[in-house]
Amino acid sequence: FFTILVIPFVPPPMIVNTFLPTNVDVEGSWKISNVRGDRSYVSYNTYIQGFEKKYVQTGGFMESVVLSAAVFHVTESSSSLSSQEIAEEEKDRKFRNGQNNARAGYSDYSPWGFPSECDGLEEDLGLSVKIRAYCHKNDYHYSVIALGDAGDIGDDVLNFVKSINGKIDVVSEAKQASTA
Fold this sequence. Notes:
The protein is an alpha+beta fold. The protein has helices spanning about 25, 85-100, 155-180, and strands spanning about 30-40, 40-45, 45-60, 65-75, 105-110, 120-125, 130-135, 140-150.
């Protein structure tokens, strides 16, 4: 007679949603929803916590932007790769998927001020534009994908990317300070 003890996996508390921009962060009048919400998954035998929000902004005549932003945190890695390496691999995989899904073809999206840890794609769909930015920073990877007809959609993507990047920097600096 023997007993098997099963210890269920309990995911850490959801915190990555705090990295997603608010209207204060991106100076806009966005309607923000948690339509997609929890996007956590397992890759490389490692739990990756993720959260996605949808942002909608409508302007004047025929001007609208629908944007989704998602942030993923690679928790402690139980793989041979470090959590930073897994985050970079996941960002690269999502970027390749974005390239493959760009049916209309694409050009590089990398405006002035675009973080070096990001790769971007821009698709011209005739009356609208789709921009996808995929980024990796430390043990996080994130994406900002926007579709719209507004002329400043590229500025929106850049503002969202910079906002998320800045919030990850604050947490990373705090972690470094606490281990120093």
